[in-house]
Amino acid sequence: MTRNFRELADKRLLKRGNKILDDLFSKSVHSIRRLSDDEASAKGYYRFLQNDRVSEEDLIRNMSYNCIEACQGKYVICIQDTTEINLYSHKGRIKKDHFIGTTTSKKDLGLGFYIHPSVVLDASNGTPYGFANVKLWSRSQNFANKHERNYRDLPIEEKESYKWIEVSEQTISALKAQVPGMLIVQDREGDIYEQFARIPQEGVDLLVRARADRSLPDGTKLFSSIDKEQIPAVYSVFIDARNGRKKRTAKVEVRYKQVEIKSPKRINENTPKSLKIYFIEAREVEYEGSDAVCWRLLTTLSIDNMEMAMNCIEWYSWRWRIEEIFKILKKEGYDIESSELEYASSVRKQSLMIMEVTIKLFLMRLAYAEPEIEITPGSCFHPEEQQLMEEYMKDLEGSTQKQKNNYSKTDLKRYVWVIARLGGWKGYESNRHPGITTLWIGLKCFKDIAKAYKIFKDVSTR
Questions:
Q1: Running DSSP on this structure, what letter comes out for residue 199?
Q2: Burial classification of residue 1, based on how many CB atoms lie within 10 Å of its CB (0-12 exposed, 13-18 middle, 19 or more buried)
Q3: Predicted confidence band at 289 (pLDDT cuts at 50, 70, 90)?
Q4: Checking DSSP bridges between strand 181-186 and strand 204-209, what pairing results, if any?
Q5: How many whole angstroms separate alpha carbon 135 and alpha carbon 115?
Q6: What is the pTM of this model?
Q7: What are the percentages of helix, strand and coil residues in the chain, rounded to 5?
Q8: What is the CB neighbour count within 10 angstroms for residue 279?
Q9: Rg from Cα positions in the chain
Q10: CB 426 within 8 A of CB 438
Q11: Cβ count near 206 (within 10 Å)
């Protein structure tokens, strides 16, 4: 399938929107001036982003269309998280309206907005299908802290944390008729009793990292209740050096059990007083560092055996993919926080379009990393781009068989190989597979090559 917009206010806007999507992918920059071939093109981009007839809801609906088409008939994992877009360095230039607000409770600091997407993956192999829903919002410039708002006693619908429930409900609305089942995966912030009471239904389950060491009806605590459960499964996992963790091979014990959790006292009378769910713990042993792995997960799935518990652990580990989307949107990729746009509404729209483009980057990486998965080249590259890569491939291949590109022309891997080589990858299968950043750099190099080729082709035919 081609990941384009399908439905905007008129054909002219639809054509412009899809041109911006193509340029964002191939040029891999946020700057309108660098995206544009000429002044007229730049003006068209600015007008599209500022046009009131192109709303955030329009863009999100089109993103959802792509996701729905891609995931039909599949059991899916729907991952949620939040990121902040900080535009404080542009405070003297950006227009202050309801599309932008403070990003802290300190009223004199912080300026920006928040994005909370629901990213959909195939449960069997992690293939990214797109975004079922995205929530964007900004806080008031006079945003009060929790104590001033009496946050604890507010109904859940009036709390910012309601975003987890709201996006879960929107995800269900978008996908329920298209897929046989879905598992909604969230980090600690999603550990909200009301969500466990409202969201699960036939074909819909939750998997959330536990935040609170809840008191159980029998007087025990949640975290310690699992210590004396069945003999745990033990497995080894490689821990990469990042986010303060040491590089090592960790030995992890896994236990699971069914627990009954009690509702907080503030819950309204229509909410169940207790719920039965499953608790899974994956704890690193024989290691004393403060960065030891310890995942405590709550799920409404029925965990009948250790294999199912291990599946949940793997599915939760896929959360890093949404963090990678945020990295590509921000500092390690498009650097949207450095945008020269003067209206926050335009930055918000461009952020959504960049997020849609990142799905192609993930498809490229997955296509190369998973040999058994075959993705069509047209999902990422136009026929003329494929043809150019076929020509340029000759300069990238080495003299030995190990340095040849032996993939089929019907497989996206063939063209990802070219982009990865342009991004600095050495081309040896024994090396680590190319990552998102390598592919992102390679795309920028390829766009320069394509532009030079177009100039040469135009000049040589005159």
A1: S
A2: exposed
A3: confident
A4: parallel
A5: 6
A6: 0.90
A7: 40, 20, 40
A8: 24
A9: 24
A10: no
A11: 24
Contacts of 210 (CB under 8 A, 6+ apart): 188, 191, 222, 223, 279, 296, 297, 298
Burial of 108 (0-12, 13-18, 19+ CB in 10 A): exposed
User: 3-state DSSP call for residue 91?
Assistant: coil
Structure confidence at residue 372 as a pLDDT band (50, 70, 90): confident
Angstrom distance (rounded) from CA 378 to CA 368: 15
Please give the full DSSP string across 123-151, using - where no structure is assigned. Answer: TTT--EEEEEEEEEE---TT---HHHHTG
> Tell me, what amino acid is at 22?
D
Q: Above 80 in pLDDT, residue 117? A: yes
Strand pairing category for 181-186 and 75-80: parallel
121 beta partners: 77, 128
DSSP three-state, residue 440: helix
State how beta strands 294-299 and 112-122 pair: unpaired
Residues in the chain: 462
Give the span between the Cα atoms of 38 and 380, in whole angstroms.
25
Q: What tokens were used for 67?
A: 């996701």
Q: Where do we find the tokens 């963090």? A: 323
Report residue 207: phi and psi, to 5°: -135, 110
pLDDT at 462: 53
Ranked by mean pLDDT, the top range of 23-37, 320-334, 340-354 is: 340-354
165 neighbors 101 (Cβ within 8 angstroms) = no
